[in-house]
Design a protein that fits this description.
Blueprint: H1 16-25, E1 34-35, H2 41-50, H3 52-64, E2 73-76, E3 83-90, E4 97-99, E5 103-111, E6 114-120, E7 127-133, E8 138-142, E9 147-151, E10 155-159, E11 163-169, E12 176-185
Parallel strand pairs: 1-10
Antiparallel strand pairs: 2-3, 3-12, 4-8, 5-10, 5-12, 6-9, 6-11, 7-8
Protein name: Toxin-antitoxin biofilm protein TabA
InterPro entries: NanQ/TabA/YiaL, NanQ/TabA/YiaL_sf
Pfam family, one: DUF386
Length: about 190
């Protein structure tokens, strides 16, 4: 993975320009599928540097896989717990927001389109529906304020633990989609 010409791998000390340079020169920027413009580039770069093996495995999987011929299921990508789920489902009219504490999601649609609503995780503002489940690394909540992102085969969304998200939402009408969710362990 590209390591920009910085003397420090502590991304918190990098300027926005250095973060953008690393990101724009990385292999992630060269994929045919593009990251959604909402991506937190600083966190993205930081996690890539802290956990290069997992991010390289994720990149290779996204770059080299023929998702249309792959069956739904779980695919192990690295020894540290990095994996991908391939799912097929009908988009929804309603759902709850979800959030994770241990994993970062990379969400990509191989077929179809859906909206993913994103909102900051804020215990004071979010209305908890289901308490956090440590084993499944998930909590569900409701929130009225969010940003809507269109996910299709041309782009992917990276969701960090600070990003509550409501995936699987219909665009115009309910449709069957095929989604790839790569789960990468968060490094503190």
């Amino acid at each position: 993975m590209l390591m920009a010409c910085n003397k420090s791998n502590d991304v918190s000390n990098w300027t926005d320009s250095q973060v953008n340079e690393w990101f724009n020169q990385s292999e992630w920027a060269q994929l045919t599928m593009k990251p959604d413009s909402s991506i937190n580039k600083r966190l993205f770069v930081e996690q890539n540097i802290l956990n290069p093996t997992s991010w390289e495995a994720a990149l290779k999987f996204l770059k080299e896989s023929d998702f249309n011929s792959m069956k739904p299921g779980r695919y192990e990508l690295a020894d540290d717990g990095t994996y991908a789920n391939i799912e097929e489902y009908l988009t929804k009219d309603t759902a709850h927001f979800e959030a994770h504490r241990k994993y970062i999601d990379i969400q990509y649609l191989a077929k179809g389109k859906e909206y993913i609503y994103v909102t900051p995780v804020d215990k004071k503002r979010n209305r908890e529906v289901t308490p956090y489940n440590e084993t499944k690394d998930i909590t569900f909540f409701d929130e009225d304020n969010y940003t809507k992102h269109l996910l299709s085969s041309g782009n992917f969304l990276v969701l960090f633990p600070s990003d509550g998200h409501k995936p699987c939402m219909k665009v115009d009408s309910n449709e069957v989609v095929k989604k790839v969710v790569v789960k990468i362990p968060l490094v503190q």
